[in-house]
Amino acid sequence: MSTLPSDKPFALELRGIDKRFGAVHANRNIDLQVPPGTIHGIIGENGAGKSTLMNIIYGFYTADAGDILIGGEVQKLANSKEAISHGIGMVHQHFMLVDNFTVLENVILGAENGPLLKSSLGDARIELERLAKDYQLDVPLDALIEDLPVGLQQRVEILKALYRGAKILILDEPTGVLTPQETDHLFHIFDALREQGVTILLITHKLREILAATDNVSIMRQGAMVAHRKTAETNKEELAELMVGRKVRLKVDKNLAKPAQVVLSTQDLTYTDEMGVDRLKKVCMDIKAGEVVGVAGVSGNGQSQLINALAGLLTPTSGSITIGDTCISAENPSSPDGVRQLSVGHVPEDRLDMGLIKAFSAEESAILGHQNQPNYNGRVMNKPKAITSECVRLMEEWDVRPQDPKLRSSLFSGGNQQKLIIAREVDKNPDVLLIGQPTRGVDIGAIEFIHKRIIELRDQGKGILLVSVELDEIMALSDRIIVMFDGNIVGEVSAEQANEKILGMMMANILPDELSESDAGQATNGGQA
Amino acid sequence: MNDSKIPAWVNIIVLPMLNIFFAFAFSAIIFVAVDVNPLEAAMVMVKGALGYQEGVGYTLYYATNFIFTGLAVAVAFSAGLFNIGGEGQAYLGGLGVGLACLGLDQALPFWALLPITMVTSMLFGALWALIPAYLQAYRGSHIVITTIMFNFIASALMVYLMVNVLKLDGQMAPVSRVFEQSAVMPMFHEIAGWFGWSFSESPMNLSFFIALACCVLVWILLWRTRWGYAIRAMGSSPSAAEYGGINHKKLIIIVMLISGALSGMLGLNEVQGYGQQLKLDFVAGYGFTGIAVCLIGRNHPVGIILASLLFGVLYQGGAELAFDFPNIDREMIQVVQALVVLFSGALALMLVKPTERIFVLWDRKKKSLGKAQAEA
Fold first, then answer.
1. What sign results for the dihedral spanned by CA atoms B169, B175, B178, B179?
2. Are A313 and A363 contained in the same domain?
3. What is the pLDDT of residue A51?
4. Interchain pair A408, B245: CB under 8 A
5. How close is the nearest chain A Cα to the Cα of B359, in Å?
6. What is the pLDDT of residues B163-207, one digit of tens each?
7. What Cα–Cα distance (Å) separates residue B294 from each residue in B12, B70, B211, B344?
8. What pLDDT is recorded for position A17?
9. Structural domain of A77
């Protein structure tokens, strides 16, 4: 680090930042130097302390020790307002936008100059048009947020930060909700911002993005900054090893699947929600024993409704679901319990909201859905010892840490919570396993472990449905991939055919037969370039 | 992260104490304003509630009511339901007790009658909670609204019954006849007498022990059975409960029936123990105070016993206070009670943040001190 040219002061420098939350040492003596006008990646597993560090820089938390230097001067950032006044802007993972306000109104919200809205809006419009030109951030200023696709909503967030004079822009996991194409657009915007002298801090756990977009990268592990690298001088394997602290296999080893009989299928499955929106439109698909079927798509295109309908949480509006010999339809509805009895395990997409109960101890969360089973219950009272020993067994088998069944569920890390949930569902030896976002917010070490176990389950002859927003994960695990758009199945590709480009286009509802033509066209384009 | 900030004992002991302290501090200001020495008043209050046997008896008699209604609120609250209908459910429970006593007191001895009155008190209270429960579960009407409305309906129903059906012929007062002595709950001084202990006369009776037993049963229900698991799951995370195959509609009904039954048991103390006849308005706000009791007791049976004792002291000590000081009337006692409710109920969270901060500072100081010592 000391060899970096330092004719200009660093845009941002951290010296010995330390932060504790009770017993948790979230940041240990962090040093970081970010030269101005660069894109700096911060990578680390979940729970490595990235978010805490960013919140300290943004003034949400105060560090217990250490200094923050902005443009070479020590600054005390007591709250986010002060951080903003020093030119720090943040784009959160979950957008902070008012859906029924226009872009313009959202941008000035909280930064109105004076009580009269009209003059603020007028001034803002001129300023935003300038910003949009300078940074190539075209957004329709008078459109309502709810009418914009996520990619554009994200640009609004970036504009908001720039409008407030941000010179250092922090983006926390910005690509989670984007298609691969939208991600590329975002990286182009980064380049334009860098040319204008904006410094960007990109927080992510995706190695590919670090390599594609950044100039320098810092790696965090267990609250400490373990290494700094120039992006050009490193590679995926090295970064992964630094993040986890040991060698990691990024590819999932698997043999060819041997699919057998169909264990679950849907016939024209349709689901209309309370608002009258068709979330699933005549979906026909099946899962065979011994294969992994991946469901890809940009979030919110019916994947969640599909997995929830299969799990008995939603009742089909029309069409049916066949599990084994049982047919579930509007006339013959089932329930989560009913589906569980048909030997279906379900790892829900939203771990914290559904998969476990945050306020419960781990052992209580470890019996959720199976709380009425005779082995946990006497005639009236339950059997605390049986429940505890069961949880200890699951924790041992699945390496859940800390191995404390009495600890509150919310105090485990994401990866360990997820391992406990998957352990619970797999342990009942279901024929069909529905898995939603198995590795969302899970650290690399645990991802490797979970992926390996999913393939093992497949090889034991279970039918597995995998819904994930991570294309890498879908491609690594699935034997067949279904792509959904707006409640429809756009098409299906086999694992061998699938690549990011094909899936990306299908996610944008470009049908496979059109795809084969445009593919050829792009190939020639590629040749010319 | 906030979870690990303060240890449990701060949450369970320090915070409620602080809340109560603030309530008393503000009460002191009011006492000063009417020329009463707050320290003297506090002495009278504590002495009146706990200083002699009759006072203690009264305090525990009041506490009995609060335990029943507090538990009722707690059970519903564990399932995420806010049952404000304790008042009406208790009223109806009392009616159940009264009807059983009036019908059977000449035919049955006490120990045969007791199981019947227990069942009728629970049954009537539970049925009064059933309709709001059904409306919440299957029709989506908010339980807070419906239970409040049912308090008024209960009150109107009782007036009708007392005036038109149960009033004695040739009398103006809307009260039933007094039950046979054999039907009445054994008073505590009698029970003490069986064991050769002489205790001053007070309205405290057997139902105090029934209330304590209910505390144990509620604890077992919530923390040691699969039904309690379902109740707490629904209260903590409705979507996780749904995922876990818990039928929330059925559970709402069951929980409200239990809650209503617990409220209804207030009739055992108030009608079969204290009043010994049916009359109007015997619930007298105990149902509402149960909400405060549950809040201060942090939804836990042990906490509810402690909070019930506190309110027993406030009721009994307050009565003594009004008796001793001409400047203090009943309404002022209610102000003191209201302040306790305000600070431990409505403003319960006000002190959480500051307390947390103080504790974190203190913790850090202790640690740095420890470090300094270790280095030295």
1. positive
2. no
3. 83
4. no
5. 11
6. 999 988 888 889 999 999 999 999 999 999 999 999 999 999 999
7. 13, 5, 14, 10
8. 92
9. 12-244
Taking the C-alpha atoms of residue A108 and residue A89, their distance in angstroms, rounded to an integer, is 14
What six digits make up the tokens of B265?
A: 């048991």
How many CB pairs below 8 Å do chains A and B form together? 82
User: Where a domain ends, among A195, A213, A244?
Assistant: A244
Query: For A378, which residue in chain B has the nearest alpha carbon?
Result: B225
Percent of chain B predicted with pLDDT > 90:
73
Q: Chain A 448-467, CB below 8 Å of chain B: which residues?
A: none
B233 touches chain A (CB under 8 A): yes
Asked if A357's CB is within 8 angstroms of B233's CB, the reply is yes
The answer to whether A350 contacts chain B (CB < 8 Å) is yes
The reply to whether residue A411 touches residue B3, judged by beta carbons under 8 angstroms, is yes
Closest chain A C-alpha to B171 CA, distance in angstroms:
50
Omega before A402 within 30 of 0, i.e. cis:
yes
Chain B hits for A311, CB-CB cut-off 8 Å, are 243
Flag whether A403 is in a domain: yes
Q: Are residues A73 and A88 in the same domain?
A: yes
**Claim to verify: residue A287 and residue A332 sit in the same structural domain:** yes
β-pair partners for A283 = A269
Q: Does B220 touch chain A (CB under 8 A)?
A: yes
Question: In angstroms, rounded to a whole number, what is the distance separating the alpha carbons of residues A145 and A5?
Answer: 43
Burial of A492 (0-12, 13-18, 19+ CB in 10 A): middle
Pairing type for strands A12-21 and A65-70 reads: antiparallel
How many domains would you assign to chain A? 3
CATH number of the domain where residue A52 is located: 3.40.50.300
Looking at residue A521, its pLDDT comes to 39
Q: Does residue B234 have a pLDDT over 50?
A: yes
Residue A74 sits in the same domain as residue A168? yes
Chain A touched by B224 (CB under 8 Å)? yes
User: What tokens appear for A449 in the block?
Assistant: 């472990």
Which among A183, A209, A244 is the end of a domain? A244
- Interface touch A384/B224, C-beta < 8 Å: yes
Which pLDDT score, from 0 to 100, does residue A518 have? 45
Cα B279 to Cα B61, B267, B276, distances in angstroms:
18, 11, 9
Q: Is residue A250 in some structural domain? A: no
Q: How confident is the model at residue B53 (pLDDT cuts 50, 70, 90)?
A: very high
Nearest alpha-carbon partner for B356 in B87, B11, B1: B11
A134 token code pair? 């300078």
State the smallest CA–CA distance between residue B194 and chain A in angstroms. 34
Same domain, A61 and A79: yes
Which residues, given as ranges, of chain A have pLDDT below 70? 1-7, 22-23, 46-47, 248-250, 512-529
- Whether residues A59 and A98 share a domain: the answer is yes
Asked if A410's CB is within 8 angstroms of B244's CB, the reply is: no
Q: Are residues A418 and A435 in the same domain?
A: no
d(CA B53, CA B57): 6
pLDDT value for A239: 87
> How confident is residue B376, by pLDDT bands cut at 50, 70 and 90?
low
Residue A348, domain member (yes or no): no
Inter-residue contact B134 to B74 (CB < 8 Å): no
Average pLDDT value for chain B? 91
A288 lies in some domain = yes
Overall average pLDDT of the B61-81 stretch? 97
- For chain B, say whether A368 makes contact (Cβ under 8 Å): yes
For residue A524, what pLDDT is reported? 37
ipTM score for this prediction: 0.83
Residue A488: half-sphere exposure toward Cβ, Cα within 13 Å: 10
The CA-atom distances, in angstroms, between B321 and each of A257, B28, B32, B313, B328 are 83, 13, 14, 11, 7
C-alpha–C-alpha distance, residues B79 and A260, integer Å: 44
C-alpha A404/C-alpha B235 separation (Å) is: 24
Same domain flag for A38 and A152: yes
